[in-house]
Amino acid sequence: MMEMKDFITTQDWQKSKLDKLLEIAEDMKKNPLKYKNSLDGKSICMFFYNPSTRTRNSTQVAAYQLGMHPTFNSIKDSWIGYQSESIKDTSVVLARYYDAIGIRIFPNAVNYIYKEGNRILREFARWSDVPIVNFEDDQYHPLQALTDIFTIKEKKHQVEGKKIVISWAYHPKPLPYSVPNSILLMSTRYGMDVTLAHPEHYDLDDDIINVAKKNTKDSGGSFQISNNIKDAYSDADVVYIKSWGAKKHYGDAKKEKKLRLPYRDNWRIKAEYLDYTRPDSLFMHCLPIRRNVVADDDAIDGSHSVVYDQAENRLYTVKALLYELLKE
User: Fold this and answer.
1) I need a surface site. Which of 75, 91, 186, 267 has the fewest CB within 10 A?
2) Segment holding 58, helix H or strand E
3) How many CB atoms lie within 10 A of CB 224?
4) pLDDT digits (tens, 9 = 90+) for 107-132
5) Helix (H, G, I), strand (E, B) or coil at 152
6) Quick one: CATH architecture of 144-310?
């Protein structure tokens, strides 16, 4: 078993361990039969407080290909969802049935108390004897970040020194910070030249920004923040778009809406914005995406877009993680 029992944020893991996961994922994609049924007889509990498409399905298929038995559990079908059982009791018992437990818990499941979802995952980890895998909480989405850096490496062959723009995009609703937090932390650890682009009032968590700055110092990359799309996108190798909410009105969508409405047109990502980037730049989004609201069809389906390859790679990265956590 690895030095880290759990996978709650990539920041908890040594970079050499993340590198190893990426190497395994690459090999699994090229040589799937090599790993067939390599975790035969093992099982994973997939515990969801919130909906999922890519995380749920990629994990189920990955587990099946490894010979595992994945079991889907909805919070509404479990006693903990009715406040009738503690996290401790739930975690201890599930850990006696399963070899790993994956949990997804969004901000709405914890009444928009920022970091409460992450705290719950860490409490599960405290009581569990088996690995806890973060399927996305209110602060981090490590499986997505692992896939994102894997996809960039796959397309660009190296990531160090490449310019990535992590760009806010308009969405009718305030979305969680988990994806932007996670790609910011991951890209700064991998020596990329990172530009975080967003309108005023849409700053990310100060703690995350400070860790990103430290990552940059350690990795030899760079980090800057811009409120101007043209300046930010200029000569970018990667444009990663994602919406998130304003800290000022976290949990209050009605008040927050007044802040975001003025950006509805200019921060809807258009194909012409990608003209500012390098000719071979990548356009990325974690999906799901509201077409012609968050970004235009011409951007999503254009020559720069790798969103479907990025989504496909969720299979190989979660498969690599399960293998590395659970192999004998």
Assistant:
1) 75
2) helix 54-65
3) 12
4) 999 999 999 999 999 999 999 999 99
5) helix
6) 3-Layer(aba) Sandwich (3.40)
**Sequence-ordered list of residues with C-beta below 8 angstroms from that of 93, at least 6 positions apart, any chain:** none
CATH no., domain 10-140+314-326: 3.40.50.1370
Structure tokens at 242: 């994602």
Sheet holding 222-226, edge to edge: 222-226, 193-197, 163-167, 238-241, 282-284
The domain ranges of the chain are 10-140+314-326, 144-310
- Determine the length of the chain: 328
Phi-psi region of 278 (alpha: psi -120 to 50; beta: other; left: phi over 0): beta
Is 144-310 the same fold as 10-140+314-326? Answer: yes
Beta strands in the chain (DSSP E): 43-48, 69-74, 100-104, 132-134, 163-167, 193-197, 222-226, 238-241, 282-284
How would DSSP label each residue in 267-303? TSB-GGGGGGS-TT-EEE--S---BTTTB-HHHHSST
Which parts of 138-205 fold into alpha helices (H)? 142-156, 178-189
87: enclosing H helix or E strand:
helix 87-97
